[in-house]
Amino acid sequence: MKLAVYLEILDLMHACGTRECLKTISKNYPEHSYNTLVSIFCQDYQKKTRKSHYKHHKPEVMEEYYQRYLKGVSQSYKEPVLLRIAEEVDLSHSLLARIVLERHLAHTKYEGNSPPKSVVTHLMKDTSLIEDSVLSFEVQQCILNDANYGPLVDNIKHSVGAEYEFILQEKLHNRGLAFLGEDDMRSRGYDKTPDIKLEVPIAVDGYVVNWVESKASFGDEYSHSTYLKDQFWSYQNRFGPGMVIYWFGYIDELDVHRNRGILLKDHFPDDIVTLHDTFSKHA
Prior knowledge:
By secondary structure, this protein is of the alpha/beta class.
C-alpha cells in the first residue's frame, strides 16, 4: 500500500471515528482486504490511546473516574456504568475498567496505595475473581465490548498470530523446505529468535533469505520501526538476511532495507529460488 493511500484511509477513519465505517471504506478500496483495514484502525486507535495515557492516569483523574463509577452504580442505571463513562471521557472501555479496578483495590485492600500491577492484570483476565459482584460484572462488560484493547483483544491477536504462523509453516512444508521453529531455536539457547530459521537459505527477488518472521498485522511506520529496533536488526545480525511477512499488508515506502538484509512481503512468495533449483539449472 502506498503511503498516500494509507493516509487517505486514515483520514476517512478519523472522520468517522468508529469501526462502523470500515465496510464503507472497504468498498472504496477493494484492492485491500477488510482485515487490513481492521488492522490499520486498531493500530491507529492504540497510538491515540498511548498519546492520551498520561491524561487519564493522573492520580486525581483516576480517583475522579472511581467516584463517578460509585455514584453511577448507586443510582441503579440499567446500562453498565463504566461503558457510559468510557464513552463520555473518550477512553478505551478496558482501560477505564482497569483504572477503576485499581482504585477499588487501593481503597478496599491496599490502604490507599496502588495495588501490584500483576494483581490487577490477573483480575482483568479472570473477572470472576473480583470479589465485588457489581464491579466484576462492570469490568466483564467493558472487556467484552472493547474491540480495540484489553485482555480479550490480546487473546484474539495471539490466536490470529498463531494461525498465520501455522499457515507459514504449512507453506514451507509444502515446498519441502527444512526449518527450525521458534521453540526449536530456544531449546538450543537462542534468546531473540525469528519465527522461522531456514536450514538452507532461499532467494526471494534476488535476495538471500535465512529466516522468516510472521506478523499478522499491517506494517505501519510506528510498528515497523519498533520491530526493526526490538527484533529485526537483532535477527539480521545473528542469522544474516531475512524476510518479514506482514500478512495484512504494509506501507510500500518502508521496504527500504533489502540491501541491508531485511525484505518485506505481504505473503509467502511462490517464485522463491532454492539451492536445488540452482543446482538443477547448472546441471
